[in-house]
């Protein structure tokens, strides 16, 4: 786990739960953080559907990246602000995160995503389907695109969180910037999900499950590969 400050107050990123925080608070932190992230990331494309050309690809990418950054900065010190089952699973597999917390974190993330998606549906009906992620390219290409952008994301996260030699002072901004970049690359083609719950909540709210398996399998495998890649090359 990374430190925040001198030994204690210079923290920039933390992906392990604070041992002094109750399990209920950890789960609440993941739920609220995921709610905010999904609300921010999915709202911009919905607004663009309701008000044509109100948002651009840059606006959609910036909204998602900003949402991720602010949640990391506001809740990272409590639960680690995973917000993403793919990340939670990958970190657990490489022993960066206790397996006992994995089901609880994923449950909180799924519930936060569903609640945010139905909130958007209530507010923006009938334009709420703008928040779904459905490929506009072939299944194979969409799979590898989601795999690669999730690889990029977890490579960056792992480097900032678990390498003591890394520059972590702007970790939240760096991770949000990676999300921003990935959506600029993949948004028009696959939606730039990188996260099973980014796809799941809007899919349930809209009843659209087209090729949804891509957004479960590709991010998880990409996250595992990205975490493993940095673990392999990091300086000892």
UniProtKB/TrEMBL annotation:
GO terms for molecular function: channel activity. One of its GO terms (cellular component) is membrane. InterPro entries: Aquaporin-like, Aquaporin_transptr, MIP, MIP_CS. Keywords: Membrane, Repeat, Transmembrane, Transmembrane helix, Transport. It is a multi-pass membrane protein. The chain crosses the membrane at residues 21-46, 58-78, 99-123, 143-163, 170-192, 212-233. It comes from the Eukaryota. SUPFAM superfamilies: Aquaporin-like (SSF81338). It is found in: Membrane. The keyword Ubl conjugation does not apply. Belongs to the MIP/aquaporin (TC 1.A.8) family. This is Aquaporin. It comes from Rhynchospora breviuscula.
């Amino acid at each position: 786990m990374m430190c925040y400050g001198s030994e204690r107050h210079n923290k920039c990123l933390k992906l392990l739960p604070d041992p002094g925080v109750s399990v209920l608070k950890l789960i609440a932190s993941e739920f609220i953080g995921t709610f905010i992230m999904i609300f921010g990331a999915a709202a911009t494309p919905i607004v663009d559907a309701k008000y044509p050309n109100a948002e651009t690809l840059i606006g959609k990418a910036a909204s998602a990246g900003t949402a991720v950054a602010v949640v990391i900065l506001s809740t990272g010190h409590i639960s680690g602000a995973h917000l993403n089952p793919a990340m939670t699973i990958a970190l657990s597999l490489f022993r960066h995160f206790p397996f006992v917390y994995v089901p609880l974190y994923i449950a909180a993330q799924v519930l936060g995503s569903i609640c945010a998606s139905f909130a958007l549906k209530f507010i923006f009906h009938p334009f709420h389907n703008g928040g779904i992620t459905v490929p506009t390219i072939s299944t194979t290409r969409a799979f590898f695109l989601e795999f690669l952008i999730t690889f990029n994301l977890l490579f960056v996260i792992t480097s900032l969180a678990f390498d003591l030699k890394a520059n972590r002072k702007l970790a939240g901004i760096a991770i949000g910037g990676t999300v921003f970049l990935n959506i600029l690359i993949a948004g028009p083609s696959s939606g730039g999900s990188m996260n099973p719950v980014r796809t799941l909540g809007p899919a349930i709210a809209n009843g659209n499950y087209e090729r949804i398996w891509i957004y479960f399998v590709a991010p998880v495998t990409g996250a595992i590969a990205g975490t493993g890649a940095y673990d392999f090359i990091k300086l000892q």
